[in-house]
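Appendix B: complex inputs.
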Amino acid sequence: MHKRLWLAAVLAVPLAVQAQGYAPTRPVEAVVHTGPGGGSDLLARAVALMIEKENLLPVRLQVVNKTGGGGALAAAYLAEKKGDPNTIGFFTGVWLTNPLTSNEAKISLRDLTPVARLVLEPAVIAVKADAPYKTLGDFVSAAKQKPGELKQSGGSITSRDNVVRQQLQKAGGARWQFISFPGGGERIAALLGGHVNMMVIEPAEAGEHIRAGNMRVLAQVSEKRLPAFPNVPTLKEAGFNITPVPQVRGVVAPPGIPKENVVYWEGVFKKLTQTESWKKFLAENQFEDGYQNAADLTRFYDEFTNQMRSILQEAGVKTVR
Amino acid sequence: MEVFSGLMHGFAVALQPANLLWCFVGVFLGTVIGVMPGLGPPATIAMLLPLTMMMNPAGAIIMLAGIYYGAKYGGSTTSILINVPGESASVVTCLDGYQMARKGRAGAALGIAAIASFIAGTVGVVGIMLIAPPLARMALAFSSPEYFALMALGLAMVVLLAGRSMVKALLAMLVGLWLAGIGTDLFSQTSRFTFGQLELLSGIDFVVVAIGVFAIGEVLGNMQMREAAEALPVPKGLRNLLPTLQDLKDCRFAFANGSIVGFLIGVLPGAGSTIASFISYGLEKAVSRRPQEFGTGVIEGVAAPEGANNSETGGALVPMLTLGIPGSSTTAVLLAALVLWGFKPGPLFISENANLFWGLVASMYIGNLMLLILNIPLVPLFAQVLRAPVYVLYPIIIGISIVGVYSTSGSLFDVWLLAGFGLLGYFMRKLDYPTAPLILGLVLGGPLERALRQSLMMSDGHLSILVSRPVSAVMLSLALLILLMPMFGKLNTWRLRALEK
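Resulting structure:
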């Protein structure tokens, strides 16, 4: 009896997929904007592996690297694929912020078809282990006493690193330098070498440096405490009334695809996020489950761009949209 | 003693038949992708990642690292034979390697590249084994002012790369620096010289420029001079194809120079193998007894940069293994692989995974030896390519260049850029402008500007930060010295002439 039920369930899955009338017919191109080894590339390849293992797609997911323009080229490539049912893309925060500051980056998430939000990447605020700051409050008040003398290493001026700085500077009434480095390795090297005083870093990256006693974490940039940092306060708990701007990753499709395709893709990624392999993947990378369906993602996008635009403008960054 | 027992354990791991096989697979694949322009180690390793999930991690890291250093061996082949750099790190090899091939010494150039790679690659492994942790800590002391000074030192080498006219060399370098400025500025997120082109937002890939200016420009130039466009001389017999004893003697210093310069620059997370090969080439020329012959096909001019880009591999693994800090795109993919297999790369990685670390180190000794044995017999084979008549060879060169450029970015825009830079290379040749300074400016422009702006932000606008730190002060004075060198030479000739009168 049980066996028969189980069999029926297995048979029902492909039937259900067929019933929706759409399924990809040839290998699906998954467009990412980073080169091999970049964050998006690794996420897409990991998702491709999991989808294959969990048998969620009748065809293979093939990662295509369209590098350049900080996501703008990949977004434009997707926009060109208008109506193509066999292409999807993995977006990150830069796909959302780039169109705000760059004239050339014309394609925003609104010009494509949002499918699902998958991941929220929390961050922590770290200092070198021998730094005098024990709490985030210590750091901010030290910066207040010596305006412009303390330094933070980070990515570009539109990165989350700088957004956190802007929010903290505003909330704490302090000012410190923000020094851009193109590579994550260089940012960490600058902190460990004592050339800067603080950085915003992903928990998985910081973990080993903390364990080795090279780094100390002052606060975490997330709404609730992460399992790996049960004793580290969030920004709010540290006394700074800041709503962290989330770092997101998710899936988009080309514009102009039928509603049933969107529903299909939503279903695939919804199922993916419920698998054990996905949960293991999130835990290993210390990501938060950020699943949202297409409608919620569109709403999120609007809120995010508005919040981001005003933060960037306050930071003196020229916005074009 | 600890090192010795560690290494013995390592060889016990690396000499297991399966791991030996993976090591061979890695270095073989590395050689192949190195020879082919376009597809580089980061892309290859990323594509193989899913396969490695089923492998034993020791075998997997041994194979992936083999791809990394194996590609550096293969990269010189097309540079020497057809002036197309196979990897970004072998751009400098074109300068003298291709000229050697034109003189019928392609075999010697290929051979010395393999030998220099073997020596420097092995020195790099010795470096990882003996001094990795203290060296990584020292590299952390290197901050933006030091990077600025290092890049300025590299840029000063324009003096050494100049042909007959210093003015033309400086002009070419300035164009290179300008090209480096194209794209989105990291600090202000504004676009510069993009003319509304989406494709220019992330700047111009210097491999496109290098292949265009070197390979396409050369082909166009030769096609115009019908008489020169003949098959290149290739001597017969294996013995005449390999480097002679005199060649090896000439390269004694180049071996040491390439090994040490490459390794030290490799350890710095913000530099890279192209910069390493440029600097060791400049150093080689600066101390050479026949500097005027550089660029016309001297064998040290191949040995030094080829050595440097191989020991750079060893150097680049140092911050990755000891601190978990990737300094290049390849080490970033390797780091991601370690995470995927369930390791935690970071400061404690070596002590907690001693077997894996020593297995990797031992496998790199074996892999370098394999590469030498693999590459030397290939020399005569590759040298035969040049026997092809020009009406076969030139279309092939242009084809390889286009495929190489397209396969790196998958963008047709880059193919048009390649055509444009090919024309630029052609006219530079006709008007006797040296092309190497252009590439030098393009490679160093980005890091130089970033380091300068980072330094000034750190010092709140005070230029004194550049000279108040001893390491950067020393390097900047050296750069100034190199820049002024030709002026002293001129003063001297004036003085002598005046005396004669």
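The first strand of chain A starts at residue 28 and ends at 32.
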